[in-house]
Amino acid sequence: MLILSRISRLRTTPRSISPTWVAVAAMLVAVSGCVRPIAVTQPAAPPVYTSSDYIVLRLDADESASHLAGRFLGDSGKAWMIAEANPGARFRGGEQVVIPLKRPNKAGVYADGYQTVPILTYHRFSDDCQSPLCTPTAAFKQQMRYLKENGYHALTPEELLAFLEYRQPLPKQSVLITIDDGYRSVYDIAYPILRENGFTATLFIYTELIDVAPIALTWNQLMEMKQGGFAIGSHTITHSDLTLPREGESKADYAARVEKELTGSKQIIDRRLGQDTWMLAYPYGNYDQKIVAASKQTGYKLAMSVKRGGNPFFANALTLKRDQILERDMATFTKRLKTFNPIPLK
Ligand SMILES: [Zn+2]
């Protein structure tokens, strides 16, 4: 809305633009320093308005937000910036659209509140669930369809990290989908549903489970999902609580166990999937200061609890909050999708 009101103030009668308007636009972008220079082909019609912040364009023909993003911002993945600047637009020929040339604020902070990123957590899936940790196939389908139909973006962990490090803005309606443990139903049920909706997820596996039983994922399936854009993080080796010594466990044995769970699981996943694993979900969501410090030292950059709540840009990346999706009804699910925390910041 801010963009639209600024544009309506700025808008004048259509100007005749010199034939080299494209070069001018490219120069303005270069001056803004926020986006890569544009490689564009000259459109038939000149823009209605240009500034270092925006181009206002009347579309000659239908043109998608991702095509416009590729043409003006040098990256079709930035389609959301154009979609958010043109609420309700259908991007049809003759329609006037705004191309924002500068990135929106990286922190997602506005006068009336700030952006938060919900992280959804699942475990396993079945047509016939007996436990709250199991999500019925039909409910998962409905939830993913809801996310798609309501314009949610399923983030990659890299995008979330960039937001938390104040490097990149995120689409306003962003969520991270995570699935813990490493059950076979992730591959059989969740993976095709997620793909159908164009989503990817982050899987946290405890390595001892993988390949051992028919209910578990295999390394081959994990590799296939990784190649399909899914991210794989550690949930330790044995899924033991890292914050508590076991009964009769000496201090030294406890320290050795923590080290092995954090480092060993990373090494196994690194080797099996040919990657540098940098995401962790604490078993049972439990952590304390020494576990956070040890995780950081091991090389984890994102680590997740199961404390309920969203994650603003200033959240600690090593103690992220997540919402376990335990209920099946849509009203509870939609309540978990809070992407904005309203608070007067003037
Ligand atoms: Zn778990």
Task: Explain this structure.
It is a single chain. The protein has 346 residues and is an alpha/beta fold. It folds into two domains: 99 residues, no CATH class; 230 residues, Alpha-Beta Barrel (TIM Barrel), CATH 3.20.20.370. Helices cover 34% and strands 16% of the residues. The chain is built from eleven helices and 16 strands. α3 crosses α4, α5 runs parallel beside α7 and α9 runs parallel beside α10. The N terminus is likely disordered. Bound molecules: zinc ion.
Which characteristics define this entry?
single chain; about 350 residues; alpha/beta; TIM Barrel; 2 domains; six-stranded parallel sheet; 11 helices; 16 strands; about 35% helix; globular; disordered N terminus; binds zinc ion
Summarize the structure.
With 346 residues, the chain is an alpha/beta fold. The protein has helices spanning 2-10, 21-32, 65-73, 79-85, 137-149, 157-164, 184-196, 219-227, 251-273, 289-298, 330-335; strands at 49-50, 54-58, 96-100, 109-110, 113-115, 119-122, 124-126, 134-136, 153-154, 174-181, 202-205, 231-234, 279-281, 302-304, 323-324, 340-342.
> What's the structural domain tally?
2
Fourth-level CATH superfamily of the largest domain: Glycoside hydrolase/deacetylase
Radius of gyration computed on alpha carbons = 23 Å
What small molecules does this complex bind? zinc ion
Secondary-structure-based class equals alpha/beta
The ordered string of helix (H) and strand (E) elements is HHEEHHEEEEEEHEHEHEHEHEHEEHE
Count of DSSP strands:
16
CATH classification class of the largest domain: Alpha Beta
| CATH fold-level label of the largest domain | TIM Barrel
Biggest sheet overview: 6 strands, parallel
Helix content, binned percent: 25-40%
